[in-house]
Records
---
Amino acid sequence: MKVLCLLATGLVAWMLVEGGGSSTCPAVSAQTPEMDQAQSYLRQGKSRLDDKDPAGAARDFRAALKLNPHSAEAHVDLGVALEENGDQVGAVTELHRALQLEPQRPAAHYNLALILIRAGNFEGARTELLSALEAKPDYVDAHYQLGLLLGNWAEKTDLAAAQREFQEALKSRPNFPAAHEGLGVTLAVLGNTEQALEEIRIALRLKPDYPEAYYHLGVILKRAGRSEDASQAFAAAIKLQPNYAEAHFELGLVLIDQRKLDAAIQELRKAVELKADSERAHYSLGRALSLKGEVAAANLEFKQAQDLRQRAGDAVEARHLSNSAVEQLQKRDLDGAEANLRKALVLEPDYAIAHYNLGLVLATKGEFHAAVAEFRQALKGQPINPKVHLDLARALELAGSLEEAITEYEAALDLQPGNSVIKGALSEALAKQEAARRVHPVSVNPPPQP
């Protein structure tokens, strides 16, 4: 006979009891005081998160985990708190720990996806959102975020799929303003203007103080040739959010078309003030000033737009040089690869991928200390990329910094648990560390004799 027994041990687990005799289940243990205290810390941490105190919340979640280290919920909450406090590496580490405990925990996959989206890892984010939905098919926020991702992902935009995700979100939560807005924007791009306008208006009925919905309403109306209605929508967005740069810019364009040049100049100056690196805003301001006859002021704006266009061109050229360097590295043309990467970094000094590729070139040339410096620069732009941590660790180890290398191996493994390459490298580094300790044991000086 087989009897399923539920055990209350802090974690919910099932036990299969076999045998032909007694069918009595083991006694169920009561919730311990430690578990009660852990739950209290959890509740307090969630309250601090709601009050926008992520640092305080993180302390509470750590206290909960000290009492109950197997709480996937606490690891997820700690990950959220750390991410809000600017610690992406720590956040990803905690979310992976939650998934090690509960591989199908939807909130862990979902929050990991949000971090990956912000880091620009859209393929990874899509995978995590799909995992969240596999575990919880009616996960409204995951459907919504997947819709946003599919509608805005330049390399793999799929508007039809985005539409389906927003509609799935609305099946479970019909009064979800952001999903109505997302669906409206998607429908507009697909060419269904009237249905798009209806979705945006539903969003505004549900949430009247929604500046983004007013902005997108204005964009759709402008494209439909309804400039007066569009200007009112942009003005409503600005009233709700005075520093809404895109709304000022779009309103400025509408006002130019209406030949209301003074008002257009005012809006476009505000757009430039709020977003000084917008080539389009500077150019449009120059156009409005030129139409008004203010040639000198217009030329200054045109010059600024030209400079910004040149910087954008520099960024494109930097990417081209970096890609060329990768091909040269594969062909073992190390000097050529290094030259191209250094040119790329002159054009775009904070280009993380170029720093990473230069680190690879220098490590291949045996210049390990220089490679370490480049990998560290790359980490500034890609702090949650396990490959950068791994190659930094390798360079540190080859440069003779075994302790630092182990730290980076551990960081890489935290960011990508289960990776056999990282596990093997870390294991070898730890073995070297242990061997060194046996050869050179730490000596303890005896106390001085009186």
Note: The two ends are 75 Å apart (CA to CA).
---
Amino acid sequence: MIERYTLPEVGKIWSDQSRFEIWLKIEVYACEAQAALGLIPDKALREITSRAAFDVDRIKAIEAEVNHDVIAFLTSVAEHVGEASRYIHFGLTSSDVLDTALSVQIQEAGRLITKELDALRDETGRSAWRFAKTPTMGRTHGVFAEPMALGQKFAIWYTQLGRDRERLTAALDRCAVGKLSGAVGNFAHVDPSVEAHVCARLGLKPAAVSNQVVQRDRHAELLSSMAICAATIERIALEIRHLQRSEVREVLEGFTARQKGSSAMPHKRNPILCERLCGMARLLRGYALTGLENIALWHERDISHSSVERVTFPDATALLYYMLKKARELLAGLEIDPARMMENVQSAGGVVFSQRVLLALVEAGLSREEAYRIVQKHALKAWTENGSFRNLIGEDPKVKRLIPARTLAGCFDLAPYLAGAGTILARAVPKSATPTTRKKRK
């Protein structure tokens, strides 16, 4: 999974090379702070800063013997630094390095993710205004409800992605903490100023209190926020899948000239990207659960969370980044069929205008119950007999007596169903918030 979907820019963040580079920065920055406290001679600090290096293959070879990644890393660094290496990692514990480095990696991945999230949101905002007056059939329970503006669907996605952005930003901020407080977080062998210096150099905040690890509720919140964002993408993809069904066929996922939909049936044009995105959202939900289970560790720490996080964070960040990029490509390449939408709106002889007829009868003096019975009778007959609701209701004697023909005709006007779209979009998607670029649609 990771190898298949990790794009280079995300994969680089979680590579061994990148991880060890961050570890090395943490160790060197800690030495700088300890030298300022007079704990490391200036000469030794110069040797450390000038010679500090590592070899990935050598680290792996050492780890195969000692079965400890941080010790293997420190041994490789010591081979480059020489005698002054005895001051490296002084007073620290492995989790000081591991958890602080993880925070750096999370922030780097978070910047890529939020950039793609903003781009996807912009795409939905543009589409919301582009289709602000395009009528489509609103559905509840999968059944025709009332007409609405297609742009309203995009506006809903735009606002939901905005909430996703807020959640991710808050969660990333809570994960932007470092910890260099020693074996159980008591600063027994390292001065708090060391932690402050290293965190400042890395763009992090010191955790207010820690034991041997940064507390995992922070990470659980982030993974949960990512899973919610993936669920938004799933919602978008699922809607498009429904609208591409053969019986509906109002919106279609892009299909290239040489693309094929089925090995057996040449006519097939399947929403494969939408289905892929829906499947990936399930993975993100699974990672959110593992994040929650990582919160409760034994006493000051155990390492039951460690093996999990070696998979969850590289994979989860890569998945969400990939999903955001593909979702934007999906929306940019959509094929919208307004004529087919109008055909569906007008199908069954106008039954979708039943509420306006109901309200007109109530305004004319009927009780709601009686008006409902009249409208429902003709609407169901139109459905079952494939007739015209407009004709049936127009021939009803009571309706004829109560509602003038011109008033009844107005009940089947689309305009009121689109009239509120401008107000809705102005509240949800300010035009100033979206780029002015316009793309052609089929």
Note: The longest strand covers residues 143-149.
